[in-house]
């Protein structure tokens, strides 16, 4: 009886019981609807393998793919005053901040780090659209200034990845003040002769587009990224006209001279390696495997045989 109770019944229950399946194993592509396995999606840098649609990616995941061996050091950012306007809409601003921090695991909407890209030391900053829409507030302004100061101190180029819906309304005029602050920080880099490269990702809109996101020495965008100040729906409602197909998308801006290039996320690192080495006046990158080193023993034998051949060729005196 004990054998049946202790062994047989648990085995039967385990066979017929419902197995728990981990969540988020599959992700549906927003563009084509293909179900993508999470490991495949991660390895593909959150780009759909079926249609090439570029999904949102966190700053940490982006930095792991960007920096050499995925190694980087975070740059500290000064903390701003919390909830200076005591703003409240449907929720209190501090409650929204705590909810965003819990869902993303990040302190704020921008991450700043330093490391090497193709053996070129750089400082990088990336916005997190999943954190309150990547909105630009006082912390984001402080982060960009901290990134610029770190680049100036170390004499390194600055690479910035933008992804934002605009200024953070919960901080009012204080968020709009970050536009001139960040513009001054970028001007400091320009006066020091340090490159500033911007990678515009989907979406980059509002006050972010009107300030630091469009001031790069090199302007790169990911495919089909929405880049604008006011969105197409707002413009259509204002002018009461239908906008052209692809208006305000990365390819449209490239055709009209607003961008330098549109680059697939999977090819972006190699692209940045070449650009950074060129702007920093370094030798061009070496792609592929280097030829094997020559064997010194074989070289000595070759030299001896050459000497013998020269001796034999001389006529006898």
From TrEMBL:
Picking any one GO biological process from the record gives: malonyl-CoA biosynthetic process
Name the residues that bind Zn(2+).
29, 32, 48, 51
Q: Where are the zinc fingers (C4-type)?
A: 29-51
Domain (CoA carboxyltransferase N-terminal): give its ranges: 25-294
Its localization reads: Cytoplasm
Protein's UniProt keywords contain DNA repair: no
Q: Please name one Pfam family that this protein belongs to.
A: Carboxyl_trans
Q: Does the keyword Transit peptide apply?
A: no
UniProt keywords, alphabetically: ATP-binding, Cytoplasm, Fatty acid biosynthesis, Fatty acid metabolism, Lipid biosynthesis, Lipid metabolism, Metal-binding, Nucleotide-binding, Transferase, Zinc, Zinc-finger
Listed HAMAP family: AcetylCoA_CT_beta
Q: What does this protein do?
A: Component of the acetyl coenzyme A carboxylase (ACC) complex. Biotin carboxylase (BC) catalyzes the carboxylation of biotin on its carrier protein (BCCP) and then the CO(2) group is transferred by the transcarboxylase to acetyl-CoA to form malonyl-CoA.
Protein name according to UniProt:
Acetyl-coenzyme A carboxylase carboxyl transferase subunit beta
């Amino acid at each position: 009886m004990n054998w049946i109770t202790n062994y047989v019944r648990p085995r039967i229950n385990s066979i017929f019981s419902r197995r728990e399946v981990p969540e988020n194993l599959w992700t549906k592509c927003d563009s084509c609807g293909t179900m993508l396995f999470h490991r495949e999606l991660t390895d593909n840098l959150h780009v759909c393998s079926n249609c090439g649609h570029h999904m949102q990616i966190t700053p940490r995941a982006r930095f792991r793919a960007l920096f050499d061996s995925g190694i980087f050091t975070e740059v500290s950012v000064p903390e701003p005053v919390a909830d200076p306007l005591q703003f409240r809409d449907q929720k209190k601003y501090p409650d929204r901040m705590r909810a965003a921090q819990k869902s993303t695991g990040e302190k704020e909407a921008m991450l700043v780090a330093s490391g090497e890209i193709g053996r070129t030391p750089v400082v990088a900053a990336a916005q997190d659209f999943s954190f309150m829409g990547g909105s630009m507030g006082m912390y984001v302004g402080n982060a960009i200034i901290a990134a610029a100061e770190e680049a100036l101190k170390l004499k390194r180029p600055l690479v910035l990845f933008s992804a934002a819906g605009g200024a953070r309304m919960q901080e009012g005029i204080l968020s709009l003040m970050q536009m001139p602050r960040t513009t001054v920080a970028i001007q400091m880099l320009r006066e020091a002769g340090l490159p500033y490269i911007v990678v515009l990702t989907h979406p980059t809109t509002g006050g972010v587009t009107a300030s630091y996101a469009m001031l790069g020495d090199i302007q790169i965008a990911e495919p089909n990224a929405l880049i604008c100040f006011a969105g197409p729906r707002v413009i259509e409602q204002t002018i009461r006209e239908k906008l052209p197909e692809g208006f305000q998308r990365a390819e449209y801006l490239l055709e009209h001279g607003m961008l330098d290039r549109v680059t697939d996320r999977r090819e972006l690192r190699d692209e940045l390696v070449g650009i950074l080495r060129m702007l920093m006046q370094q030798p061009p990158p070496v792609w592929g495997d280097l030829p094997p080193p020559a064997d010194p023993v074989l070289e000595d034998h070759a030299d001896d045989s050459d000497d013998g051949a020269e001796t034999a060729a001389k006529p006898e005196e």
